[in-house]
Specification:
25-stranded mixed beta sheet; 48% strand; 22% helix; alpha+beta
Length: 566
């Protein structure tokens, strides 16, 4: 019990004792004199009577003040919590029994926040359930004065984020958790109510359900943390300094320090650090959408995220923020190929309702990936990016490369620049790109292998072979709305030389034309004379590539542009 409040308690007790003593003495004879003949027993009885009356009267007074009044205080506390919830929150607050423990503690059972379920009219979802909520107050509750809460203890809380539906990922109740305050200030500011110094979570559980058929909801259990809060210096009311550590080792560890204004709902991060171990054994700690990707592509690695800045909760696009993400010892697999990532680092900033990828830097496949980007965060959401790949070794993509040579090899470099509306990038993209491969073995590359298989048959039919040790390729393309238009595809392989152009659509459709074969190989080898010869061969034979990237179709066209005079 707080020393000051203990003093008030004993002061009340002393007043009651004085009143009882005075009342007892008033009942005694006015001139009563104790003489020697009075026995010791009578003397004790005379002393005991007023003491007993004092204790009885003090008990009655304390019961009247704090016993019968506790029910009123309990109702007052419940009403205050309900008023605050209805004033600041869109979800509705439901509470069980409220037990007031004089002088500064209240316990509330079965606390729930309920939100309407848009997918099921008339139904609600408990977005927050707390088995027992303990409130330690800064002062004794008084009618007409707001509660001043100094410490909150959440015992077995469950945070439940449920998406509206498969096509709408908005979390029910959380996407519009806080009511927007009108120009008129509320009767009670949160800074008047919450004078929190400590927030404790005991054995918490967080659940995320995207409502995807067959997907297992994400669950993070055994959440135990203590959030230390202190009033922050400054002229504006409502600022609190916060420091928190949250860990579920060995899966993740988070440290947060900064401050929050509970009136304006602005969070300042100084800084946030999160460490996350990504791997199959920790999949269930991540959202179901990500679980599927991780399992399918065997994603793993050590992820560290650091951030600092200011974020208005009501309008995150107005944030002023800098964040850095670093992934080490990473891996990504697709089919027979994998992408080992020694190091991947990205630096993201936000200011003036714009976002910028200031730096993307990665060591992977024996080479480097670098990039930058910009995005406007208000509609229309336009963005641009630039990527540079240097000396990426294709043979390291092969899943079993450590046990033998891969299907293909080569050193790839590329430069890609694009821009357009991000919310409609697959239909309105623009930009340019080039790809260059040297020291390669490309005959088994997807799509190219299908094309070379047809060309190879023709070469064998005329008994032409090659002792060329390595392959090369040069490609140039542009982003044109819903596709990549290749205006240059030139490759020289051990089987054949080819060149062509055409389109690869973002839905994976192919529409390309190639000239390839022994004469095309001669064209590559003999230079200018070969170019003249190539012009003739282009008029004689071509290969069309249609279908999709997964199921390409190669057809031969003889004399596609030849005009017969008769």
């Amino acid at each position: 019990m707080h020393a000051t409040r203990r003093g008030e308690y004993w002061e009340t007790y002393d007043r009651c004792t004085s009143l009882a003593t005075a009342a007892t003495l008033a009942l005694l004879p006015g001139r009563m004199v104790l003489t020697e003949p009075v026995t010791i027993m009578k003397r004790k009885l005379i002393i005991a009577v007023p003491v007993a009356l004092v204790v009885l009267l003090a008990g009655v007074v304390l019961f009247v003040i704090y016993g019968t009044g506790s029910a009123v205080v309990q109702r007052w506390i419940g009403d205050q919590l309900g008023t605050l919830a209805s004033q600041y929150l869109n979800p509705r607050l439901s509470m069980g029994a409220v037990r007031y423990q004089y002088p500064l503690r209240a316990i509330v059972d079965d606390v729930r926040l309920l939100a309407d379920d848009p997918a099921r009219p008339g139904a609600t979802i408990d977005i927050l359930v707390v088995k027992r909520l303990t409130l330690q107050m800064a002062e004794i509750p008084r009618r007409g004065q707001p509660l001043r809460i100094q410490k909150l203890i959440l015992d077995h809380p469950e945070i439940r984020a449920v998406s509206v539906g498969e096509t709408d990922a908005s979390p029910i109740g959380y996407s519009d958790l806080l009511k927007r305050q009108s120009a008129a200030q509320p009767a009670v500011k949160l800074s008047d109510v919450f004078q929190i110094r400590v927030l404790e979570v005991v054995d918490g559980l967080m659940v995320y359900d995207p409502r995807i058929p067959g997907a297992k909801p994400m669950e993070i259990d055994q959440i135990n943390c203590s959030l230390n809060v202190q009033p922050a210096e400054g002229t504006e009311a409502g600022w609190y300094a916060i420091e928190m550590d949250l860990a579920r080792k060995p899966v993740y560890a988070t440290h947060f320090s900064g401050r929050v204004n509970i009136n304006s709902m602005v969070v300042e991060v100084q800084p946030l650090r999160m460490e996350l171990r990504v791997g199959r054994e920790q999949d269930h700690y991540l959202p179901p959408q990500i679980q599927g990707i991780l399992k399918e592509h065997e994603v793993s690695g050590e992820l560290v995220v650091e951030a600092s800045g200011s974020v208005p909760i009501h309008d995150w696009r107005a944030a002023s923020l800098k964040a850095q993400m670093t992934l080490t010892r990473g891996n990504f697999a697709a089919g027979d190929n994998h992408l080992p990532i020694d190091r991947f680092q990205a630096v993201w900033t936000m200011a003036d309702r714009h976002g910028a990828l200031e730096k993307l830097d990665s060591d992977l496949l024996g080479g480097k990936l670098e990039g930058t980007g910009q995005v406007a965060l208000d509609a229309p959401v336009n963005g641009c990016f630039g990527l540079t790949l240097t000396n990426i070794r294709l043979e390291q993509c092969f899943r079993n490369a450590s046990g033998g040579e891969g299907k293909y090899q080569g050193a790839m470099s590329a430069q890609i620049d694009g821009h357009g509306p991000l919310d409609d990038a697959l239909t309105q993209s623009q930009g340019i790109g080039t790809i260059h491969i040297v020291d390669g073995r490309l005959v088994q590359l997807p799509v190219l292998s299908d094309l070379l298989a047809v060309v190879g048959k023709a070469m064998k039919a005329i008994n032409i072979s090659s002792d060329r040790p390595t392959d090369t390729a040069d490609l140039a393309f542009t982003f044109e709305g819903n596709r990549l238009h290749f205006n240059k595809v030139h490759a020289l392989t051990a089987l054949a030389a080819l060149h062509g152009d055409g389109d690869i659509y973002f839905d994976s459709r192919l529409n390309m034309v190639f000239n390839a074969g022994p004469l095309e190989r001669l064209e590559s080898l003999i230079g200018t004379a070969g170019s003249i010869l190539g012009t003739v061969t282009d008029e004689v034979m071509a290969y069309t590539l249609t279908g999709t990237l997964k199921d390409p179709k190669v057809n031969v066209k003889v004399a596609p542009n030849l005009k017969v005079p008769w």
